[in-house]
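Minutes, project check-in
Item: structure for the 114-residue chain
Input as provided by the requester:
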Amino acid sequence: MNILVTIILTVQMLSALGMIGLILVQHGKGADMGAAFGSGGSGSLFGASGSANFLSRTTAVLATVFFVCTLALAYFGNLRPASSGSVLEGAAAVVPAAVAPAVAASGAAQIPSK
């Protein structure tokens, strides 16, 4: 169970980092106006408008993976082992034993003689 939670947490962290990177790479809404007048949009890797579609779909997939991992971690975090008794029964078993009083080094109390 612990290994599964670690794997889900790793996938969640990687998807979060991927989303951060993809969101920072995407163009804003104001950048489309400059591309409409021919300011270098057609010479990009994905074409004139292909990058927006590819990046937004990839971001949506990573957001879905992140959301599913978050739900899975919340589910596994709330799992508790089934106990048959109350909390007080478990606390009574942990009580330490009473400490015996200290005895003198000779073993018994001596009465001074005359």
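Outcome recorded: The mean pLDDT is 76.
No further action items on this chain.
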